[in-house]
Structure formats: C-alpha cells, structure tokens
Specification:
two-stranded antiparallel ribbon
C-alpha cells in the first residue's frame, strides 16, 4: 500500500505547529518566571531596606539612651562626690573642734539643778534659746549616719533617673 504523501505532509505540519506552540508556551512560561523572580528580588530589596532602616532607628535610640544614662551617671557621681567631700569637711571640722554640734532644748523641760543659760551669748545664732553641745564622738556618729543617708538618697535618685530614662523605650 502506498504511503499517502498528503497524510505525511499534514502530519509533519501538525508536528511543526505543535513544536512551535511548545516553544511559544516555554518562552511565555520563562518570561513569567523571570518576571516573578524580578518581583521577588524587588520585594526582598524593599524588605532589606526596611529592616536596615528599622535597625538604624533602634541603634540611634540605643545610642541616645546610652548618652542620657552616661550624663545621668556623671551628674549622680558628681553629687555623690560632693556629698562625700562635704561630709569629710564637716568631720574634719568636728575633729579639730572648729565646729561643734548642738541641739535645741525645751527651756520649760530643763532638769532641776541643770545650769543651762537661757539667754543668748555673744556669737550665738538663736537668741533666747537653750542649746546643749553634743559630745564630739556622738557628733561624729550623727555625721556618719547622715552621710549614709545622703548616699542612699543619691543612689535612689540615680536609680529613679535610670528607670525614667528606660521608661519611654520599654513601657510604651
């Protein structure tokens, strides 16, 4: 039986059309994949820029907080050293008897037989008040107690300043 050339031609033409359609489909799919890859790359770049910007903002906040804390620490250290210097000076004055601590007494509650003058003498600060001078050892203990109290108050102020500096960042 003879092979009909016409049938072979149609078959070859169909195969060619199929191959062209296949190539066209492959090309379109390749373009879609390339476009999708480009969009994904743009998205990734945008996310990277956003993350870098957020990281820079956080770094700037951290640096600002560190600067505020350093300034606060310096001022509290200065207050602590000033208080220490004042306490040391007062302790030295008490030790050399240049300064004496005294307390006010209730003139109506003076014990019988106690000769405490009720009038102001030369160099007295409170006229017509009765005062008693404290023993230097007791005065030193009082100064030590006030020194400890001053240090505690300064430390408390430093802690409060630290919490206030952290507050805007951590308690929003």
């Amino acid at each position: 039986m003879p092979i009909p050339w016409r049938m072979i031609g149609i078959l070859l033409l169909a195969l060619g059309a199929f191959a062209v359609a296949w190539q066209l489909q492959d090309w379109r799919y390749g373009q879609q994949l390339a476009e999708q890859a480009r969009l994904n790359a743009e998205n990734l770049n945008q996310l990277t820029l956003t993350a870098a910007t957020a990281q820079q903002v956080e770094r700037d906040k951290r640096l600002a907080l560190e600067q505020r804390l350093a300034t606060s620490e310096q001022s509290h250290y200065r207050a602590l050293s000033d208080a220490q210097r004042d306490q040391d000076r007062l302790r030295d004055l008490l030790a050399t008897a240049d300064v004496r601590l005294s307390v006010l007494l209730d003139a109506s509650d003076v014990a019988p037989g106690c000769n405490v003058p009720a009038t102001a003498g030369a160099g007295r600060v409170d006229p017509a008040t009765v005062r008693a001078r404290l023993d230097p050892a007791h005065a030193q203990r009082i100064i030590a107690i006030t020194d400890t109290g001053d240090r505690g108050l300064i430390a408390l102020q430093a802690c409060q300043a630290y919490v206030r500096a952290l507050e805007p960042e951590h308690f929003e």
